[in-house]
Amino acid sequence: MNVYEIVTERIISQMEQGVVPWHKSWMDVRSGAFNRVSKRSYSLLNQMLLSHKGEYATFRQWSGLGGHVKKGAKAEMVVFWKLYKTTEMDDSGELREKTRPVLRYYNVFHISDVEGVDPLPMDDLHDTDPIPEAEKIFHDYVCREHIGLEIELSNEAYYSPARDVIHLPDIRQYDNANAYYSVAFHEACHSTGHKLRLARFPVDAPIAPFGSEDYSKEELVAELGSAAILSRLGLETDDTFHESAAYIQNWISVLKNDTHLIVSASSKADKAVKMVLEGNAA
Fold first, then answer.
1. Which of 107, 173, 225, 279 could covalently link to 26 via disulfide, CB atoms 3.0 to 4.6 Å apart?
2. CB-based contacts of 195: which residues, under 8 Å, 6+ apart?
3. How many CB atoms lie within 10 A of CB 121?
4. Structure-model confidence comparison of residues 193 and 25, the more confident one
5. How far apart are CA 121 and CA 67, in angstroms?
């Protein structure tokens, strides 16, 4: 029995016992433009609409913080969808309740246009050091395959097939390096699916929509591959294993709880892991 079969059997066993819900293993940071009161980053659309990074708030919110919007300061617009319930008659003449989204907006001011309020201090990051062996394997793979790599303070981890780029939150956002490499190798396994590698998803084909069956199957491959790499390197912990099992269970639920899909995904994960660790999938 190889490492992939062992990990697969252990994950299935863990799922049968019930696992905790999956959660992101990294600490969220304030990035781009964000609301001073909620500390939440604005949506991608609003990030494009706003002209500055950093803190924004409404006139009333700044006043509540003891601030004063400077005379002549120009407000900027933030948009959001508000849901309204209506009752309409359908084609059969029956009244049915429908929910309609309506685009709304409100005005905000950047902290540079406000007096009497100091900027928030930087996020408290962890003193998390890289693990040399894992760092070498990950970066050797990225360099060998000429994959773009973006590591920055952010709230997103993903692989972009169109750009052939891996994007990761900074290692200091994780309270332990094992969790960081679990995410890094997850995205690395995704990248093996590029058409120039194992061709699980040709770059010129439409990207499978989030939550679709194809998307779900690819997530199983990536997470199983990541778990196998951590096991191979001796970096697996109870936390990383439980997170992997919980993550996979989330996607299995999309696929109607068919645990046999993990077994079929393990053969693809096997090839992905070999490419990451050894440079080939033979």
1. 173
2. 201, 202, 203, 204
3. 6
4. 193
5. 17
The answer for residues whose C-beta is within 8 angstroms of residue 24's C-beta and 6 or more apart is: none
- Side-chain half-sphere exposure of 48, counting CA atoms within 13 A: 3
Please state the rounded mean pLDDT for residues 179-196. Answer: 96
SS3 115: strand
Residues 6 or more apart in contact with residue 93 via CB below 8 angstroms: none
Mean model confidence pLDDT for the chain: 86
List, in sequence order, every beta strand (DSSP E) within the chain.
33-35, 54-57, 68-69, 76-89, 95-110, 114-115, 148-152, 158-160, 165-169
Give the Cα separation of 190 and 174 in Å (integer): 21
**Per-residue model confidence as pLDDT tens digits over 126-137:** 999 999 999 999
Prediction pTM value: 0.69
In the predicted structure, residue 1 carries a pLDDT above the cut 60: no
The answer to whether the beta carbons of residues 221 and 275 sit under 8 Å apart is no
Query: What Rg, from alpha-carbon coordinates, does the chain have?
Result: 23
Judge whether residue 35 has pLDDT over 80.
yes
Helix (H, G, I), strand (E, B) or coil at 100: strand
